[in-house]
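Usage

Read records sequentially. Each one opens with the input sequence:
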Amino acid sequence: MALDVVRLTARDFSDAMDLMNMVFSMGGRPHHFQSLLPKLYQPDDGKMGAHVAIRRDGRLRAIIGHYPMTLSIGGQSFKASGIGAVSTHPEDRKSGLMRQLMQAIVAEMETEQIALSVLGGQRQRYGYYGYEKAGTHLRFSLSKTNLRHARPDLAGETYRFSRLDPTAADPQLVAQLQSWQQAQPIYVARPPEAFLTILSSWYAQIWLARDPDGQAVGYLVCNEAGTGVSELVPSRVDLFLPLAAAWVSRLSAGSTEFSVPPWATTAIADLGQIAEHEQILPAYSLRINDIERLLPALLQVKADLQPLPEGTFRLGLDLDGKKAVYALTYGSG
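and closes with the structure output:
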């Protein structure tokens, strides 16, 4: 008999963290979600209300988080969500609890009109619920040797970096960082009061870049060693490579890997000419619920980045036995 799916509250915080930390720690390195992802896990009804769970005899046995987001694509806003904290007590695995929770979340997406949902997880496991690997991000390895031979003009520390403390945010500075992030054609909205907390997820470090005159010109998010940069957002697109070069020059390590979104075409072109290694990787597993709105928005972003041929694009879908054909017509102007 199926057990009831319940929504968690602040009272469940300690028990939920105990279950999640135990399950994820058993699968690899130790986890402490309260410090790992403070943007999601706090003892309040708002944060805990994003989690659905199943109890047996009053004890939490399975949890899944369904986290709301606002996705901006070319200036259009879409309701989106992320899936995480998928945890089943070891004694209850293979009992259908995760399946029951995922089905409840998929039903919630329809009620809440979620256009797009994203997760990171095993492909086939979540394929049962409509998720598929999609999107791309690029990774470039840039070294001191690359700079010395190909761009000696950029070698050195022309730009200076100072680390930002997420707990001591200057509202004016946060607003500036947020404006740079929101200048991108695609981004997830981050509330000003949580902007730096979100950037510091997964124990990441946040660094502010300044030019020789002391003006703030971008920010960078990296791992503890500084050798993995997950986000570099300059105030101008042509500053990506100079800031990346200055970052590599200041580290004792020989090279740094930079993750770059596919719409950062200037950064891709600049790094592609001198980087030692390049990789194209799948971005996430996505469940697309509102293709009628998402498809034209994404195509328009692409058209704004590069010339597209005029004509009609047709997409045929067969989802759960429901067949549909979507047609998009594009004309330059």
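Summary fields computed downstream for this record:
- The chain has a mean pLDDT of 93.
- The chain has three domains: 5-130, 138-283, 290-330.
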